[in-house]
From TrEMBL:
Region Disordered: start-end pairs: 28-53
Pfam families the UniProt entry points to: Phi_1
Keyword list, A-Z: Apoplast, Secreted, Signal
Name of the protein: Protein EXORDIUM-like 5
The keyword Secreted belongs to this UniProt entry's keyword annotation: yes
GO cellular component terms given for this protein: apoplast
Signal peptide: 1-19
Location in or out of the cell: Secreted, Extracellular space, Apoplast
Low complexity: compositionally biased ranges: 39-53
Length: 346
């Protein structure tokens, strides 16, 4: 998703034209580039640099998002949460509420469910769309770090394998998506450097099944300026003020948007053979990659776009359940062929 130079140059162009500051969170979320890594030099960080210009609100003609014949998650989606490491309940609640809001019609517009409805515009060759129904089916808690406080990418799959083997989560083919959420102190390979989250599918040799999954980490203690933008901004963006997080925790509120990013891509490209741009399936540019850093109308090139503020000055663009508010990046709409969110002004 980060190796197609021609696509990246096309994507870079609008940013250059805007003469904007470089965007901080390279590779905020991405399909697991394990395969890509085999063909790139170890320690090669150009991916993070290039992906930094990979989002903008605009022109349809430059983006060739294509369908590659694989399935999307068209059955009602059962999310299985794996809380890895010591997670205070107060930090879990906004993340859980966000996921539960994705198919909750009650909150007023612009709502999280309306945000998901752009993801549900994607369909596969059977004519089935991504499901509007997203449920949190079960949760596993692993506060004592059974695989250690520092996970490799493959160890994330082993955490899932453990949960399935222990019977704490079921094997749910066709409907299940497994989300590994690492606590503030847990480090993950490439976290903060090349990724803030990733999604992929599990290998039968490691897990016994092919199941779509994603990892997202709490970056608050590690790299909020990289992974919790715009609630923290890197020093080179001096002059751009950090926004106040709507749920009061920079790491959690930043994680909500990365989680949304990964889930949108997981649903539309669960086996990395459905919706993505670029010719290289080992480096796909997916529907949320195209809109990284865009949260409202006019967004792009280091500007979030127009978002709202609550009475305490905290920024948000979505309403959710329990009166919660969230700030979540937009995703690419196959209908308007631009980044889109329910707080769009037109
Ligand atoms: C399903 O996808 C098609 C094609 O993008 C879209 O026109 C339609 O509105 C979608 N249906 C729902 C229920 O979202």
């Amino acid at each position: 998703m980060i190796c197609n130079l021609s696509l990246l140059l096309l994507l870079l162009l609008p940013t250059l034209l805007l003469a904007a500051s470089p965007f901080p969170h390279g590779g905020k979320g991405k399909a697991d580039p394990q395969v890509a890594r085999m063909s790139s030099k170890p320690g090669d960080d150009s991916s993070g640099l290039l992906s930094s210009s990979k989002r903008y609100e605009g022109s349809s003609d430059l983006v060739h998002l294509r369908y590659h014949m694989g399935p999307v998650l068209s059955s009602p989606i059962n999310l299985y949460l794996i809380w890895y490491g010591p997670w205070p309940a107060a930090l879990q609640a906004p993340l859980r509420d966000f996921l539960l809001s994705l198919s909750d019609p009650a909150p007023p517009p612009p709502s999280a469910a309306q945000w998901w409805s752009t993801v549900a515009l994607y369909s596969d060759q059977t004519g089935a769309n991504v499901s509007h129904r997203v449920a949190v089916a079960a949760e596993a808690h692993l506060p004592r770090l059974p695989r250690g406080a520092s996970l490799s990418r493959l160890a994330v799959q082993l955490v899932i394998a453990d949960a399935l083997a222990a019977g704490s989560l079921p094997v749910d083919h066709g409907r299940g998506a497994y989300l590994v959420l690492t606590a503030p102190g847990v480090t993950v390979q490439d976290f903060c450097r090349a990724a803030c989250g990733f999604h992929y599918f599990t290998f039968p040799s490691l897990v016994g099944h092919t199941l779509p999954y994603a990892w997202v980490g709490h970056s608050g203690l590690q790299c909020p300026d990289v992974c919790a933008y715009p609630f923290a901004v890197p020093t080179y963006m001096a002059g751009v003020g950090a926004m106040r997080p709507p749920n009061g925790d920079v790491g959690v509120d930043g994680m909500v948007s990365v989680l949304a990013h990964e889930l949108a891509e997981l649903a539309t490209n669960p086996l990395i053979n459905a919706w993505y741009a670029g010719e290289d399936p080992t480096a796909p540019t997916e529907i949320a990659d195209l809109c990284e850093g865009v949260y409202g109308s006019g967004g792009g090139g280091g500007y979030t776009g127009q978002v709202s503020k609550d009475e305490l000055g905290r920024s948000y663009n979505l309403n959710g359940r329990n009166g919660r508010r969230f700030l979540v990046q937009w995703v690419w709409s196959p209908v308007v062929k631009a980044c889109r969110g329910p707080n769009a002004l037109d």
